[in-house]
Write a structure and sequence with these properties.
With 960 residues, the chain is α+β, with helices and mostly antiparallel strands. Among the domains are: 169 residues, Nucleotidyltransferase, domain 5 (2-Layer Sandwich); 153 residues, no CATH class; 64 residues, no CATH class; 42 residues, no CATH class. It is built from 36 helices and 23 strands. The strands form six sheets. Strands 1, 2, 3, 4, 5, 6 and 7 form a seven-stranded mixed sheet that branches.
């Protein structure tokens, strides 16, 4: 039995305790050090810099050209250079380039041989040879490709992400099933969803972008990117397991773009600001902020872009650009820029872009109604239809497994999951259209606004013209009260083209004088007659502009309208009275009328049914006869005395009451309203038309008043169409379209862009129809297309056609793709619509006694007899000298106004009086736009090119 332990006994010394424990503990635990002590042991004993050269990986001395190369050392100290080669390890050695590894040298020599081999042209003996064709290569070429279980969705590209590798160093490529599993696993990551859930792109699209960056863009395999991307685009592929993952199934068929011109096309982009340095790449928007840039289209959900950002390395520039900016796209080659699905002028600095397929449609919609909300709804409808198809596809597949299969996953929601950002609203669409119309970022270096303006400036006249006012179009301008727009004055030619259209504060001649003088000064504007809605009022004014030899006429449309606006249109005899009124004023050509009656009775026109005499008589009493067959009938205007006699008979035939001693009435009241056809204003209107009947006849022979459009060979009726050269009827038809180019309440810039586009395309369509009659090549091509499409203009931008033709010439093509093109005339300085009104309002030009404009653009620095009564007090027996538009001083030297001559060529005026509009050559277009360069040197004006040109010592800049 052990003795009891004494609790008060003293403890043994520490050495005895260690000795007792050492029997049970190993040597490692006894020598254990703390983490801090171990760290201090691993640290170096001294932090002083080691003396001597740097060591190589294997402990050798690193080669330094200045120390070890004799030639480089001599050059460094300024001594005489020995006549020997550089050291083999020196990078300046021409043979080794500093590479001493024999395997690397051998590989470089082999690469040079292969480069020379492939650069050399093929020999004649090597062409069409089968020496290198083996049996194995033939079998491999014609081997049957393995069929896929699921086809890619319709409308998607064949290039997809199925070639993405799971490992950068792996030899196998990932399948669409592996890709679907990767997206599903990424979406289950709470951290990923929390980080990317606040961005605009759907989570599934952000997940596929992260996989593409990791497995493709950052892959070390050389062919990985080329196998996955087609240009800039890759398409998410379909897989068998996609229906089990709603997130993966929702993005199948969607496009992911990498907008990097260096990586995708090997293009170095020159800085458009300084035009000196190549831009350097920085980072993409996805690598920096994990965001994607949307491009909305009509086909479905938006395409998402990883956009590379550039920066100019020049110390004086440092400009930054995104790879999808319009200024970058317009300077790229056309084949590369076409891979980004946005037109360069629409590549604005916005939060999203609209695809080219959508803007082409919007270009037609905006020009006809200006409805930005409709364009926005079309984009949103594309997303909704895509979601409907995706949900239908998913539900249809899962329904095949069984009606009560509860294992089917829940379909993805539209808002927040399928689409997390919405298309731009109608206001943004209109803003984008307005900004794109004035954008110079096009490959032909001219904006749509300037192009349409110069197209209208090039309109000429050879036979007759017509001028008129219209009021409905002013409702499209929201600020018409602020700028004082009451009406629009325009002038049309005999072919129907619009030569000028400007907003005016009143219908007075003085307000349209500036625009009229500018039109008549065109070298190709030489009419023989003019039609006006108020002729013979202001007959002396037009005699001064066009000459006394020009014949003036009252328009047929306004002559008839003065009577028709006084009768009741809901009367039972309205259309009968209208037809008899036309018959009292004009009649159809007998030959044309006989041909039309024969075609109607034979049934070759008019729906294929044969018409009897009673059917033709009933048809003539309706508006459909003129609407359907008026293009085949030429009209003769009756003599003045005959018109007056027939107007008396027409008035008696439809009047209900008569005064004592007058001819008895033959008309009747309406059986429903019990009202007569005429009002109290009809009689004065008829009397006024009798007085003006002498100004109604055609100023030219009938053959010159119409152009014949011969029928095609396979025409059943064989009737000739006649295009009238009565400019007034064509001008009134244009007024109806002009009022619908925009919507009510638009800002001036947007309304002007829409009106300019509509007017320019209206003129272009007329010239296209005229070529159908004169151009033999066009006449032969008419037989190759349906008659419904032969008068439709195929291309509205002839500047782009000229640019394509120049590319074809540079490529060596013998024939250009577009042989019929129209070049732009030099800018004459004319401005249309509200721009002209704003200029007149700011400059306040004076006028003479005949309401002729006397501004510097019309007459230059000339003394005049009378100034504008609105802008300055009238002074009798004194004259004034116009130095500019705002400074008028009295001088004693009289100078009579011009008479019967065209306005003289203007002379130079002080530069301060000119409203400048800057344009410049294509190579400096972007430079001046961004404000990088400013004109310096001696300044002078040059009027030799038809306008004021600001000339500097280095660069000419036009000032209109």
């Amino acid at each position: 039995m052990a003795p009891p332990v004494n609790p008060y006994q003293k403890r043994p010394p520490l050495a005895a305790q260690v000795a007792r424990k050492s029997v049970q503990m190993g040597p490692q635990s006894q020598q254990r050090l703390t983490l801090q002590q171990r760290t201090h042991k691993l640290q170096a004993s001294s932090h002083k810099k080691r003396k001597g050269d740097q060591l190589t990986l294997f402990g050798g001395q690193v080669f330094d050209p200045v120390k070890h190369c004799v030639v480089c050392k001599a050059k460094a100290i300024g001594a005489a250079v020995p006549h020997r080669g550089h050291d083999q390890r020196c990078p300046m050695n021409r043979k080794t380039k500093g590479i001493t590894n024999p395997q690397v040298l051998q590989q470089q020599q082999q690469d040079q041989k292969l480069k020379a081999h492939f650069a050399a042209p093929s020999k004649e003996t090597e062409k069409m040879s089968s020496n290198n064709t083996t049996t194995d290569s033939v079998q491999q070429f014609f081997a049957k490709r393995p069929a896929k279980n699921l086809a890619a969705p319709s409308g998607t590209s064949t290039t997809n992400c199925s070639n993405i590798s799971n490992d950068n160093n792996a030899n196998t490529l990932v399948t669409p099933e592996d890709l679907c599993e990767g997206v599903t696993a990424t979406l289950e990551d709470s951290d990923f969803c929390k980080t990317h859930g606040r961005f605009r792109a759907p989570l599934a699209m952000s997940a596929i972008a992260a996989i593409v960056v990791d497995k493709v863009i950052n892959s070390k395999k050389s062919n990985q990117f080329a196998d996955c991307f087609d240009g800039l685009t890759t398409v998410v592929p379909a897989s068998e397991n996609m229906y089990s993952s709603p997130g993966c199934h929702s993005i199948v068929g969607q496009c992911l773009l990498l907008v990097d011109w260096k990586r995708c096309f090997g293009l170095d982009v020159v800085c458009p600001h300084c035009q000196k340095e190549y831009l350097k790449t920085t980072r993409t928007n996805f690598s920096r902020n994990k965001i994607l840039f949307p491009v909305f289209g009509l086909s479905g959900p938006p395409a998402w872009c990883m956009v590379q950002h550039y920066k100019c390395p020049s110390a004086s520039c440092k400009a930054a650009f995104a790879a999808n900016d319009g200024i970058i796209l317009c300077n790229l080659p056309a084949y590369a820029a076409a891979s980004y699905p946005v037109e360069s002028k629409y590549a604005l600095s916005k939060h999203s872009h609209v695809a080219r397929s959508a803007t082409d449609v919007f270009d037609l919609i905006m020009t006809t109604c200006g409805n930005g909300d409709l364009c926005s709804r079309l984009l949103y409808n594309g997303v909704n239809r895509a979601y409907m198809e995706r949900v239908t596809d998913c539900c249809s597949y899962n329904s095949m497994k069984g009606q009560n299969d509860k294992s089917a996953p829940k379909h993805i929601e539209k808002e927040g999951e399928f689409i997390s950002t919405h298309p731009p609203a109608g206001d943004l669409i209109r803003d984008a259209y307005d900004e794109a119309s004035s954008s110079p970022f096009t490959r032909w270096k001219i904006s749509d606004h300037d192009r349409h303006t110069r197209e209208i400036q090039g309109v000429g006249c050879r036979l007759s013209c017509a001028e008129d006012h219209t009021h409905e179009v002013t409702k499209n301008c929201y600020g018409r009260s602020r700028i004082g727009a009451t009406a629009l004055w325009d002038i049309g030619t005999d072919t129907g083209e619009i030569a000028s259209a400007v907003l005016v504060p009143t219908t007075a001649t003085a307000d349209l004088s500036h625009a009229a003088i500018q039109v008549t000064r065109r070298p190709n504007f030489n009419p023989s007659a003019i039609c006006s809605d108020r002729w013979p009022t202001k007959e002396d004014y037009w005699a001064v502009l066009l000459g006394k030899e020009v014949t003036g006429r009252l328009g047929l449309f306004h002559f008839i309208k003065r009577i028709l606006r006084t009768i009741r249109k809901r009367h039972i005899d309205y259309y009968r009275a209208l037809n008899l009124l036309l018959d009292a004023i004009c009649y159809y050509n007998q030959h044309d009328y006989d041909q039309l009656l024969g075609a109607l009775k034979a049934g070759t026109i008019g729906g294929g049914s044969k018409h009897t005499d009673e059917d033709i008589a009933d048809l003539k009493m309706t508006k459909h006869f003129r609407k359907r067959y008026g293009k085949h009938l030429r009209k003769h205007i009756r003599p003045a005395n005959v018109i007056c006699e027939r107007l008396n008979d027409w008035f008696v035939q439809f009047k209900v009451t008569a005064s004592e001693g007058a001819r008895p009435p033959l008309g009747r009241t309406d059986p429903i309203t019990n009202e007569p056809l005429f009002t109290q204003d009809t009689k004065p209107a008829v009397d006024n038309c009798k007085l003006k009947a002498q100004h109604l006849q055609d100023p030219l022979p009938l053959q010159q008043m119409h152009s014949a459009i011969e029928p095609v060979e396979n025409s059943a009726h064989g009737l000739t169409q006649h295009a009238s050269h009565r400019g007034e009827s064509n001008l009134e038809a244009f007024h109806l379209m002009l009022a619908h180019f925009g919507n009510n309440g638009m800002r001036e810039s947007l309304a002007d862009n829409l009106n300019l586009t509509g007017a320019a395309r209206h003129n272009l369509s007329i010239r296209h129809k005229m070529r159908l009659m004169t151009d033999e090549t066009t006449i032969r091509q008419r037989s190759k297309m349906p008659s419904a499409w032969e008068d439709v203009v195929s291309y509205c931008n002839h500047s782009e056609l000229i640019y394509v033709n120049e590319l074809a010439k540079e490529a060596g093509y013998q024939e250009v793709p577009f042989p019929v093109v129209e070049s732009l005339v030099p800018d004459t300085g004319e401005r249309f619509f509200s721009e002209c009104l704003c200029w007149i309002k700011n400059q306040r030009p004076p006028h003479d006694e005949q309401d002729l404009c006397l501004c510097h653009k019309c007459y230059g620095e000339r003394p005049v007899s009378v100034v504008n009564k609105k802008h300055a007090p009238a002074v009798e027996n004194t004259t004034t000298t116009i130095n500019n538009d705002s400074n008028i001083s009295n001088v004693p030297n009289p100078w009579p106004p011009p008479a019967n001559v065209r306005p003289p060529i203007p002379v130079p005026i002080p530069i301060a009086a000119l409203p400048f509009i800057w344009t410049h050559p294509p190579d400096l277009h972007t430079t001046f736009l961004l404000g990088a360069a400013k004109p310096t040197g001696h300044i002078a004006l040059d009027w030799s090119r038809g306008g004021a040109h600001l000339m500097t010592s280095s660069v000419p800049i036009e000032a209109k």
